[in-house]
Amino acid sequence: MSASAPLSFGFIGPKSCEAHAAVFSLDLRPCATPPTPCSPCSPPSPPCSGDKDKGDDSALTTDDTQDSTDSGGDDTNEDSDPDDTGDTQDTDDTSDTSDTDTGEPSFEPLDGFGALSGDCGVLTEALLSDAAPGLYVNTLDFGTETFDASLLSEGGQIIYEAGNLGGSSLLSEVFAYEVLYRCELATLLKTEAEIVYTDTGGKKTDLLVEIDGLKLGVSVTRAYHYPPDDPYTLALATELLTKKLGDLPLSTANVAPEDAWVKQLLSILAYTPEHAALIEESWLTLDAELRGDAILIVTATEGADEELY
Prior knowledge:
9 strands, 2 domains, alpha/beta, 7-stranded mixed beta sheet
């Protein structure tokens, strides 16, 4: 560029003026007369090349440098140019990387009886098809609500009306299913009495469900000790897990081919979050053979949960 060529800039007027863009010329030739001060609503007169204001230039340089080098979040988020494929690609890549790196489930539990929180939407087809074991923890808080079967899912109502094969664990089976339905979109296939076994006197499981097109056996138990005021210990948690995990391969071997499942889930309803924490602590100490390929869903219950225990 020659020294005599004028250079044009865009200028945005101050907030006291009507917002507009003005264009003015910067003449780099020395001027004989100093520039006159600008009015509040007009673009400033450019200084002569011989009397350059270093402070102003420093500010311009900083802003210009930021604009030319900043390709990050602010520019990308505010860029509405549909042809700017570079910024769009960067935004998509960031989102994909975040999803891949964290692996955090984004599924919100379905509405139902009690407030459900914690691990939810974790039982993917890939995980259920894998031979590795796993443990997931959530919380079901009934608040002050009293039990109302009409608030259960269709599958939960079927389990409740069918009853079970004995004991006082009916409601624990109902809510074990409710957690799977609301968090994992499980479908009830058969209740306890409907599952077919090769040996009717052998080990059995409690429910047969389907998640992501896979049949799963569900064994239900409770982390609870009577009287409830007595401390629940790590030894009690280990005793419970050892018994229930030991039964899983026996019922798996006993189920008839038409009801055979690909994996068993052990659903544990825990009397308090502290009970749930001891189950998790015990699980980490068990040997691989005992854990097998079991998936544990540990649900700590809160609020008006006395009827479950």
